[in-house]
Amino acid sequence: MKLSTKGKYGLYAMFYLAQHAGNGPQPLKAVAEIGVPEDYLEQLLGNLRRAGLVTTVRGAQGGYQLAKAPEEITVGDIIDATEGPLTISECLSDEGCCHRSGQCRTRRVWEYLSNSINDLLQSISLRDMLEQEEFGVTKES
Q: Closest Cα partner for 55 from 66, 44, 40?
């Protein structure tokens, strides 16, 4: 299992918007300064908008902003919107990939690991990232 740039860049963009929450909509150009090409970023923000995580404001003072408070948006929400649910093994999302999937003993291990990862991602909010305390990192680090 490896996150693609969709998940990584989506999280970078959402963290940027969380840092600027309350400052009004952020122009695409400003968000792109995190190091993501504007065209690609626009696609990602479109996915995040359809998932109800960001809103757009049109016009000269327009841009993107969080649709919810930072504490209401989790890393899991962002990854799901950009990548889809994470799985450790292909057999969890496609039972037809393996002729043994119905009686496979290891499949339960992959399922347990995938669920644990997804549960952890759902437990980390953008607010936690802003405060950098919830998952073992302090502001002083």
A: 66
The per-residue pLDDT for range 69-128, each reduced to its tens digit, is 999 999 999 999 999 878 876 666 666 666 665 677 787 888 888 889 899 999 999 999
CA distance linking residue 49 with residue 27, whole number of Å: 15
pLDDT tens for 36-49 read 999 999 999 999 99
Q: Distance between terminal CA atoms of the chain?
A: 28
Residue ranges of the domains in the chain?
5-131
Specify the residue for token string 């496609």: 94
Into which CATH architecture does domain 5-131 fall? Orthogonal Bundle (1.10)
Specify the 3-state DSSP secondary structure of 3. Answer: coil
